[in-house]
Write a sequence for this structure.
């Protein structure tokens, strides 16, 4: 890696029914790739009837908390493990999410939009709906929801902020209404003083691109929006995935620090290049 590792705050456990690995296995994987800090962020319980198959049940929350705190003890002094959660933002569920978050101590809560109304737009089983939706409408509706998620005051980090592109559906590059919706989203994130997640997960999806797009990262830099890193690992082997790519993008966009969280307090940590011998290989190159 060109950069010293920063915290990876986005990883799941099998409680969400679509991830593998124990917290201990995620922690071992993190140590193997040289991380000093990670945070678990499994898909949170949501009210009855909302996306039940893809998240832990409320009855599993205590076991999740226990597994993470046990790992915190096991790895103390070697790896800092934060207690996080990925909750959904979905209009109508805010009071449930608020109550659930308040019932426990978290280091941070990620807020993610995975649904436009009843459409799970990032679900491979529902990709056919893209034939029904106008792409610009979908992007605008999505960004409105992300803006509202920031404004809700429920979350510390906005998860994978342009997840809508996951399967590669793109509005025209010059679509002013999509660009306006994107700008309103970023202004809402700035106003709410929450962090924007830069996620390598998109690189593993059909779109093959970091979430969010470099244009959005560059605008976040102008607005001085804090960013955090997440691999969105659903298996231990994905921990820290493409961190270097993401940190390189941040550097290119003029962002030199990432957010770190403890007890829902944010502090900024500088992104440091590794001092290395690459100078030699550069001058010896063709
Ligand atoms: Zn997931
Ligand atoms: Fe997500
Ligand atoms: Fe996730
Ligand atoms: Zn996710």
């Amino acid at each position: 890696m060109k950069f010293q590792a920063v915290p990876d705050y986005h990883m799941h456990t099998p409680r969400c029914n679509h991830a593998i690995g124990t917290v201990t296995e995620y922690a071992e994987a993190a140590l193997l790739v040289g991380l000093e800090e990670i945070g678990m962020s499994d898909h949170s319980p949501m009210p009855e009837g909302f996306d039940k198959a893809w998240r832990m049940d409320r009855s599993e929350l205590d076991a999740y908390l226990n597994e993470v705190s046990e790992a915190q003890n096991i790895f103390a002094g070697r790896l800092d493990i934060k207690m996080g959660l990925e909750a959904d933002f979905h209009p109508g569920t805010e009071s449930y999410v608020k109550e659930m978050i308040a019932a426990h101590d978290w280091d941070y809560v990620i807020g993610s939009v995975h649904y436009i109304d009843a459409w799970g737009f990032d679900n491979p089983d529902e990709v056919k709906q893209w034939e029904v939706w106008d792409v610009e409408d979908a992007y605008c509706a999505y960004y409105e929801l992300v803006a509202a998620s920031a404004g809700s005051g429920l979350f510390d980090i906005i998860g994978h902020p342009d997840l809508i592109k996951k399967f590669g559906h793109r509005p025209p590059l010059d679509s002013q209404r999509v660009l306006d919706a994107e700008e309103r989203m970023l202004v809402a994130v700035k106003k709410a003083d929450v962090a924007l997640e830069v996620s390598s997960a998109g690189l593993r999806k059909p779109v093959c691109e970091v979430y969010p797009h470099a244009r959005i990262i560059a605008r976040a830099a102008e607005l001085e929006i804090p960013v955090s890193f997440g691999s969105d690992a659903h298996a231990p082997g994905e921990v820290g995935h493409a961190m270097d790519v993401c940190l390189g993008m941040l550097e290119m966009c003029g962002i030199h620090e990432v957010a770190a969280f403890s007890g829902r307090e944010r502090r900024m940590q500088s992104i440091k290049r590794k001092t290395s011998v690459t100078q030699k290989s550069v001058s010896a190159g063709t």
Notes: The chain has one domain: 14-284. The mean pLDDT is 96.
